[in-house]
Amino acid sequence: MDVVIVPTAADVGTHAADVVAARIAAQPDTVLGVATGSSPVGIYRELARRRAEGSLELGRLTCFALDEYVGLAPGHPRSYAAYLDREIARPWGLPSARVRAPEASRPDLAEAAEEYEQAIAAAGGIDLQILGIGTNGHIGFNEPISSLSSRTRVTALSAQTRADNARFFDGPDAVPTHCLTQGLGTILDARRVLLVAQGERKAAAVAAAVEGPVAARCPASALQFHPHATLVLDEAAASALTLPHHHRPVPDRGDGAVPGSPAAAS
Question: For residue 243, what pLDDT is reported?
């Protein structure tokens, strides 16, 4: 696991966008796994900016979202399908058919989960999965005690996650109680993983994921098993690491590259 610490939240978005852009430049038809929520927004907007200025072509990407709320009507402004349209499909110039989310409004959610797994496999698998991390260590909506080998499925949201996400709704009671999410096993199948975290609120979860034991109580700790996982953190999110000097980038490799950078990823 490579851990890159940068000064500010804005730097997280810029550095992570460099990593994603380098992957797309090397493989324009990349299959990209996209997290929702606030953590990766800086990445998506920076990539959109580069596309707008003509320095990056995004039109051959295929994107798969990590999760979707159960119980929201299609087109609900707080659905992740709406988020994908707002933050990815339109700014990146992608048709909606190339940006998919789990179909959590389907009557048979188990069938929808299985079909989502099949769609990812049919696309050739995820080349690069973007992740955030919850304050309780969840990735996707894999809450604590999720199986480390779990696949896309219906699961309940924890009280902590619902409280954290209440800022996007009209209070905690308006947050859905269930979701359809890729499992930890699905996430670990991605060829590369890029997790971003900003702010002191994420510090304890980051420390548990990076330095704690691999345990279902901190789902993100499963990334310790991934052979190509990079975490990009701001100083605040890294503040609970007990050995931060082991995680800081080494700037003088001779080519100017740091772990997790485009040069290091090539």
Answer: 80
CA dihedral 63, 117, 213, 145 (to 10 degrees): 120
Interatomic CA distance for residues 83 and 178, integer angstroms: 18
Q: Where are the beta strands (DSSP E) in the chain?
A: 2-6, 31-34, 62-65, 67-69, 99-100, 128-131, 153-156, 178-181, 192-197, 229-234
- Spatial separation of the C-alpha atoms in residues 109 and 231, rounded to whole Å: 32
Predicted local confidence at residue 247, as pLDDT: 61
Binned average pLDDT, 10 residues per bin, the chain of 266 residues: 94 97 97 95 98 97 97 88 95 95 94 98 98 96 95 95 90 92 98 98 97 95 97 96 68 42 43
pLDDT confidence of residue 266: 35
d(CA 193, CA 227): 9
**pLDDT value at residue 172:** 85
Closest CA to 217 of 158, 265, 162: 158
In angstroms, the CA 37 to CA 130 distance is 11
The strand order across the sheet containing 178-181 reads 67-69, 178-181, 153-156
Residue 102, CB half-sphere, CA atoms under 13 Å: how many? 34
Task: Identify whether the C-beta of residue 177 lies closer than 8 Å to the C-beta of residue 250.
Answer: no
Specify the 3-state DSSP secondary structure of 265.
helix
In this prediction, residue 98 carries a pLDDT of: 96
Per-residue 3-state assignment (H helix, E strand, C coil) for 159-217 = HHHHHHHHHHCCCHHHCCCEEEECCHHHHHCCCEEEEEECCHHHHHHHHHHHHCCCECC
Displacement of CA 31 from its chain's centroid (Å) = 13
Tell me the C-alpha distance between 149 and 146, whole Å: 8
